[in-house]
Amino acid sequence: MNEARLMSELQEFLHFIDGSYRPSVSGKTFPVVAPATGEIYAVAHEGGEVEVNAAVSAARSALNDTWGALSIADRTELISSVADEINARFDDFLEAEIIDTGKPKSLASHIDIPRGAANFKMFADTIRTISGEAFETSTPDGAGAINYSVRKPRGVIAVICPWNFPLLLMTWKVGPALACGNTVVVKPSEETPATATLLGEVMNKAGMPKGVYNVVHGFGPDSAGEFLTSHPGVDGITFTGETRTGEAIMKAAGTGVRPVSLELGGKNSAIVFADANLDKAIEGTMRSVFANCGQVCLGTERVYIERPIFDEFVKRLKESAEALKIGGPCEEEVSLGPLISAEHREKVLSYYALAREEGATVLTGGGKAATSGLSRGGFYVEPTIWTGLSDESRVMREEIFGPCCAVTPFDSEEEVIARANNTKYGLTASVWTDNVTRAHRVARRLEVGVCWVNSWFLRDLRTAFGGAKASGVGREGGVHSLEFYTELENICVKL
Ligand code: NAD
Question: Which ranges carry the Aldehyde dehydrogenase domain (predicted)?
Answer without folding.
Answer: 25-490
